[in-house]
# Entry
Amino acid sequence: MAEHMTGLTEQLQTFFGRIRLRDTLGEEEEQALVEAASERITFAAGEDLVTEGDRPTRSILLTRGYACRYRLQKGGGRQLMAIHLPGDFVDLHSLLIKEMDHSVGALTECAIITFPHDRLVRVTERLPHLTRMLWLLTLIDASCHREWLAGMGLLSAAQRTAHLICEIYVRLEVVGLASGHKFNFPITQAALADAVGISSVHINRVVQELRQRDLISWENGLLTIHDWQALVATADFNDRYLHLVKEQR
Amino acid sequence: MAEHMTGLTEQLQTFFGRIRLRDTLGEEEEQALVEAASERITFAAGEDLVTEGDRPTRSILLTRGYACRYRLQKGGGRQLMAIHLPGDFVDLHSLLIKEMDHSVGALTECAIITFPHDRLVRVTERLPHLTRMLWLLTLIDASCHREWLAGMGLLSAAQRTAHLICEIYVRLEVVGLASGHKFNFPITQAALADAVGISSVHINRVVQELRQRDLISWENGLLTIHDWQALVATADFNDRYLHLVKEQR
DNA sequence: CGCGCTCTTGACGAACATCAAGCTCCGTGG
DNA sequence: CCACGGAGCTTGATGTTCGTCAAGAGCGCG
# Structure
């Protein structure tokens, strides 16, 4: 067990941080999560962590890299439905949903920690407040889905792109994974296009527009926001949907 | 208390049915929900059940009518993010989310039952399996959001419209609120346009196309599906995302 | 050196928004 | 009884956004 836990607690700190942004997390609760953890696995960019139709027996927590939820279309199209960052409990859903209705893929090299479902169920039997915290994390995922959905209906391609950049920066920043309005973003324009819901040709023009307006630069996988206020204004970005308020839940 | 419960259990049957589609629901669990219920309220079409920015102290279960989650834009646009039917626990989210990041409105006259948050928290402290069932319902909501999101990126306006019709029919049908491929759908074309994410002019043309292809008819608030197979085919509809499988969760 | 992946650019077309006008239906008040 | 008005539906004309097709450039990698 000592072996098992080497480095594990450290690797879960970002995850704990994401909970502590919203409520307090007790010693016993933290310990229960550490004990529920199982394997550590890495994936190469492009690999699937979970595939549509799977019936996982464990949930996946992302500790390193960018992952995405996505759905493929018969015709060959792809739509991303979320981008996940270190500290995200990527498919906590599968604990109750059972059969995956979408896939989770690695956008970059990824490292994960797995949590067997039976251990998580035991957590729900024993620790109601921690259960609510896990539930809350999935509710915030849903809130992000709604935000993207509203963006698809109400915003232009350029606005949605700006919005996504704002979202990722804030979510990285609040857990100390980014600062100074810049962050590593080593994904392809094609992947970004699938997230924003437009073609790869068009995302290229949108990115160039954002660069020419001097809102951002993006080279060698490093994205820099030059004018945060202006980026927020064009995207009509409001972080309320991320629920970053610490209170009793 | 006898007074309080008059008719209440009956009004919750559709809700219990939605849970029983996915797992068994024990006598004690059902009773706990009945006891957690509080007021019954009705709303006229167009009224808000909850408004963006509110901090509700109770959650709302819809027992009659159509409601929707929506977000407004400064410019005046509106995007629906879900349509809710009788038996849906509409803003169970607010139990943990606390501050509403969107509004819930009545598309038709609606009747609701309220559940004070403190009573629901007590349920989570006492009944882990029922807690997981409530959690599951919010996960299925999220799954619907993802489905709509994928549709926005991958499907045409006509396909999304067909998809929405399929979704509503199935969700009504599985709890016995519709059969024979028809259902009451007394909403305006403008509201449908906001759901599909297109203009009211364009939804009109889309609806006419669906009528001319003899897929549906829709008059006096009654929508009839004439060719279910063809409608499913055009929408590329697959009900997997509704998670209608009964199993241990 | 050559291959493949990503990014870039131009030309053209399709899907959908916007603007504008007229329609039907229905309730309300005279 | 009809006039009026509003809400929702319908239709046409025009413009914008974005998709698709096609080609080429830069670059890392074997």
Notes: The mean pLDDT of chain B is 96. Residues 156-157, 198-199, 201-202, 205 of chain B lie near DNA strand C (CB under 10 Å from a C1'). Strands of chain B lie at 40-43, 48-50, 58-64, 67-72, 78-84, 103-106, 110-116, 182-184, 216-219, 222-225.
